[in-house]
Amino acid sequence: MPSVSIVLPRAGVILALAGLALSPSSGLTAAQLPLASTPYVLGDGIDRYERSMRSGGPPPDGIPSIDEPRFVQAAGARLDPLEPVIGFVWNGEARAYPQRIMVYHEIVNDRVGGLNVAVTYCPLTATAQAFQRGSSTLGVSGQLLNSNLVLFDRDSGSFFSQIAATGLTGAHRGATLDELQAVWTTWERWQAAHPETLVLSERTGHLRNYRNDPYGSYVPPGGYYAQPGTLFPLLHSSSRLHPKAMVIGARTAEAAAYFPMEALARHRVLQVEGFLALYDARLDTGVIYRVPGDQGAPAVTPEDDGGFMFEGRRLEAHELSLERLVAVEAFHFAWHAFYPESRTPQDRRSLSGRIPGNRGNSGLSGVQPTRRAGG
Amino acid sequence: MSRPLRAHERAAVILRIPTCRTLALFLGVGYLMLFLVALRDLTPGGDGFGFLRVPWSRMFERTGAVTFEPVAQFTVPGWTLLVSPLNLLIGGVLAGLAALNLVVTWIAFRQPAACRFNRSAGIFASLPALLAGSACCAPVLVLLLGLQFSSLMMSVFQVLIPLSAALLLVTLKLVLDRTDVTLLAPGATPTTASWNPREPSAGDASSLK
Predict the structure, then answer these.
(1) Computed from CA positions of residues A297, A300, A302, A307, in that sequence, does the dihedral angle turn out positive or negative?
(2) Does A362 touch chain B (CB under 8 A)?
(3) What residues in B contact A212, CB-CB < 8 Å?
(4) What is the pLDDT of residue B175?
(5) Which of A118, A148, A113 is nearest to A32 (CA)?
């Protein structure tokens, strides 16, 4: 059986572990909606976020989440090999959520490996994120912040930003969702890594044409997914990369960082202060670790077989004995809009100079959002 | 002495004229198709033949300001039709109003004697029809052109469909009140008009042929 990249809840974890603990801000039992005990850094204050929310058109639940998901075996799934899917694993149970279904529902309230989770996807920012949901369910509010999905907790009514994973209104305002690792990859890669995976069925309980993406296509890249334009106003803009270039980022309580996926795939190891990113060739994604400031840059060397040498041992990207952070892939414009002070490799010299065993030597400019097409 | 015809009676007289009826049907069906495509109830992409349905009660669930959930789905190779009864109702009303407005505009151009406004003023009647078209198509166009939704634009989109329906009604009433249907149906009584486009008349009705 292939190794399974289960990622534990982010450090600090949940108030829900005892099932009785109370959310510090709400007084609700954490079992209703588990929250993280340590917040993520924010690019702007909650007040500004709240003021900047705007309607995307649909009313709350106008984009219906899938609350009673059905699944089919991998062998019975009619997916194209290069089709994007969102992967999630918990306690050895693997799920694949096809992007072409998620684009119409954005949230699946699921139970995987005994854990209640909400797998979420925002087509406008290309972000796939999973959150613990306890006994509650999450819905699509119809609001957007930085062109990104705003979720709502059906128990408390609180709105949450998806990318920031932070409460914007109501009882959970300022609280942080307990985020789990979801993976944005292709069906053929996910199936190869998790042959036993179940696949979200098109029998969602809703009627939609799942063969037609309203925004464009990933295979080949087209429409909104390839155009430089964004649909809704942003708090912060950057011209450093193509707006739709895929980046992978992570945040802690103190800082955020991102790495362009194209550069990470080429260099395989990238670092900025406090963060180490490794390329996981198996799933064509990244793994991001926290590097404490007093440790200096860890010596990680890419091996020819896709693994890495670390502390004298050959390891897979997800096997390093460092604190693993939840990594989020996103369009560059979206990550920058939320984290304008995000740390990122600055230029060719800083890339090649910091990385032990780095074999790449290209700059970061001109990254195009075509990586998914080639898987 | 017979009373003046009301607007809906004038519309009925116009629709009894075969040419006008055919034109209205053509425009109405075309508009409705466009409406369904813009709402994504009619989309390319379909795998084989199929039919799915969900409980009828779902038809009242809103997916947008004035758009609603489908309760049935027909799939044929290459196309998928989602049947949302309320979307069809709204689209049908808009399509009917837009088609009638356009037909009256066409009459004003082809037979100005029948209308107490000049040809260029006939355009007035078609403007709400165009606005009604933008009610369904504008969000799609914004997406296709890669433009950015502003708060104002979103607010306008929310009310565009009811606004365009109201404007269509108002302009239709105005132009019908100024249309002399007796000139469209020479020799016929106002309530039982049947117009022969081949019969010459003072209003040059044959130009509507």
Answers:
(1) negative
(2) no
(3) 40, 43-45, 80
(4) 76
(5) A118
Option in B47, B63, B147 nearest A58 (CB): B63
Alpha-carbon distance A168 to nearest alpha carbon in chain B (angstroms)? 19
pLDDT digits (tens, 9 = 90+) for B91-128: 999 899 888 888 888 877 766 666 666 556 556 666 66
State which residue of chain A sits closest to B71, comparing Cα positions.
Answer: A207
What is the pTM assigned to this prediction? Answer: 0.82
- Nearest residue, CB atoms, B146 vs list A59, A209, A227: A227
- Number of residues in chain B: 209
Residue from A12, A277, A276, A250 nearest A127 by CA? A250
Q: Which chain B residues are within 8 Å of A223, Cβ to Cβ?
A: 143-144
3-state secondary structure of B74: strand
> For A91, left (φ over 0), alpha (ψ -120 to 50), or beta?
left
Successive 10-residue mean pLDDT values, chain A, 375 residues: 38 36 41 89 96 91 97 94 97 98 98 98 97 97 96 96 98 97 98 97 96 92 90 92 96 96 96 95 96 82 93 94 96 98 75 33 35 34
